[in-house]
Amino acid sequence: MKLIIGLGNYGPEYEKTRHNYGFMVVDEIARKHNFPDLKLSKEHNALISIENDVILAKPQTYMNNSGQAVKSIASYYKIEPKDILVIHDDADIDLGEIKEAENQGSAGHKGVQSIIDELKTNEFKRIRLGINSEDPSFKGKELEEVVLKNFSKDEEEIVSKTIDNAVEQIWKE
């Protein structure tokens, strides 16, 4: 069994923010690969869909507590950390870029740190989606403000292509 977790914040006000990039990729995996609709599991505090030996999940905790849902799902389904893939935004990477990581620290990403803390290991895979932008409105802003901003109209095409590329990259693994 494999667990693919997209990180984000629940609620309509966060739906199209940079911090919800992981959610967007999970939604596209579900659509492209005919998963059943993601349904709320109160037990795991996550939206979950299972198809064959793959679980898609979107924690319904806020980003900084994502590890609670990941630990709950992994424990219940007896999934080893090496079989977990976490998809998340990364402000250290330019918009449109995708980087893989494995067995690494959080680099300051609080959602990833929550997972490391809860699982007591960093031995899981990650897909890091770049959100760094040349947008002048970001100058002088705190990171917390930037990640909660929506993608601009100009960025939406890049985001759409990046999501498609991420889905393709994830699915061939």
First-last Cα distance: 14 Å
Number of strand elements = 7
Q: Give, in spatial order, the strands making up the sheet with the most strands.
A: 2-3-4-1-5-7-6
Task: Find the CATH topology.
Answer: Rossmann fold
- Tertiary shape: globular
Main sheet characteristics: 7 strands, mixed
CATH C-level: Alpha Beta
Order of helices and strands: EHEEEHEEHEHH
Helix content: 25-40%
Per CATH, the superfamily is Peptidyl-tRNA hydrolase
Q: Using the 3D structure, state the CATH architecture.
A: 3-Layer(aba) Sandwich
Describe the protein in words.
By secondary structure, the chain is an alpha/beta fold. The chain has a single domain, classed as Rossmann fold, CATH 3.40.50. A 7-stranded mixed beta sheet has the order 2-3-4-1-5-7-6, sandwiched between helices. β2 and β3 form a beta hairpin. The model has no long low-confidence stretch (mean pLDDT 92).
Blueprint of the fold:
Layout: E1 2-6, H1 21-32, E2 39-41, E3 46-51, E4 54-59, H2 66-76, E5 84-94, E6 98-102, H3 110-119, E7 125-132, H4 143-147, H5 153-171
Parallel strand pairs: 1-4, 1-5, 5-7
Antiparallel strand pairs: 2-3, 3-4, 6-7
Helix pairs in contact: 1-5, 2-3
Summarize the structure.
By secondary structure, the chain is α/β, with parallel strands linked by helices. Helix content is 33%, strand content 25%. The protein has one domain (2-171): 3-Layer(aba) Sandwich (Rossmann fold).
Task: List descriptors.
173 residues, alpha/beta, Rossmann fold, 5 helices, 33% helix
